[in-house]
Design brief:
Shape: elongated
Radius of gyration: 16 Å
Length: 110
């Protein structure tokens, strides 16, 4: 995308960072819901918990980066997006594929 006189590189960077934060927020919201609904599924809870930890670290890094661009911006007020789920398809099968993509017993994610 060519940058015009009215759109700066900083604005573009902020937009992309905000989209990434919104996707992390969306995935975290799903994980929180799924962890609450998983009951006694220990293996699944471990995988979801591991991914949650990764996302919390990523979220903090994104927050720090956003604050460097605009200290007045509160990244916690950014909503959620579901674009993080696109690689897994649509509907309930996507959720199942997402959960299957998480690591098993310390093996890295695919």
């Amino acid at each position: 995308m060519a940058l015009t006189m009215t759109r700066t590189r900083t604005q573009t960077a902020l937009t992309k960072l905000a989209e990434r934060v919104a996707n992390v927020h969306g995935e975290l919201a799903y994980l929180e819901w799924r962890l609450a609904a998983s009951g006694s599924e220990v293996a699944l809870r471990e995988r979801l918990g591991g991914r949650r930890g990764e996302l919390l670290d990523a979220r903090e890094a994104l927050y720090i980066t956003l604050r460097q661009f605009d200290p007045a911006l509160d990244p916690q007020t950014i909503g959620t997006l579901d674009a993080w789920l696109r690689p897994f398809g649509r509907g309930n099968p996507a959720m199942k594929r997402y959960e299957e993509s998480l690591s098993w017993e310390g093996h890295p994610r695919k």
